[in-house]
């Protein structure tokens, strides 16, 4: 019998209890082939996915550590200690190479002294080239606007403002003690406060110092020594507190130095040197 004429019933009769029939075996074979094909397709697909995954860049351990150890960021601002605008020191200082305006009376001007011996020139010598000192002294000037010679109306005042200084040293009050001027004493403090603030308002925001006048050892030129000591000096302290500036005391250190004042009012060269040293210590304490 040829293979083509093979009769399956001979091997597996129709009523046989054999587990597999030719038809079933053929079906199993066909099913197995299909299943194997599906598995093969899935295997190829999964292998491709793994290869694609391997192509992706991986983070190094150091990169992972740097990410994991970085502190979390927050958009909430951290708290900080507020900065106060109130000066914390009674001795303010200015940076070197400052423009220094010395505003005042004939004591600042250096009346009857050689130009190189007035206190502002000697102050310049003490400071060296670190700063530039300018003299804006006016003989007979007052802080009182109603005085005989108000500093307010002098060109020196305008020039001092235009200098836009970093430091201002004000020496005024001696001539205000004259009876012709002191009759307006009720306006002395308010005029002085306004004067200080006119400099404080400059773009340079200068450090302003106000001086207690030097002692008057004689009642010369109608200047009253008692008014300077007992009225003007205390008022200058009040002005300083109101305007938040430092006082340079030219009175106390010189109160026993009458020999340094040629006419009892104006210092000689040595007296001017002492004034320069006092001012230098105030504006450059180090």
TrEMBL record:
Sequence segments annotated as region (Disordered): 57-97
Low complexity: bias regions: 65-96
SGNH hydrolase-type esterase domain boundaries: 102-273
InterPro entries for the chain: Ester_Hydrolysis_Enzymes, SGNH_hydro, SGNH_hydro_sf
A single GO molecular function term of this UniProt record: phosphatidylcholine lysophospholipase activity
Name of protein: SGNH hydrolase-type esterase domain-containing protein
Organism: Larkinella terrae
Domain of life: Bacteria
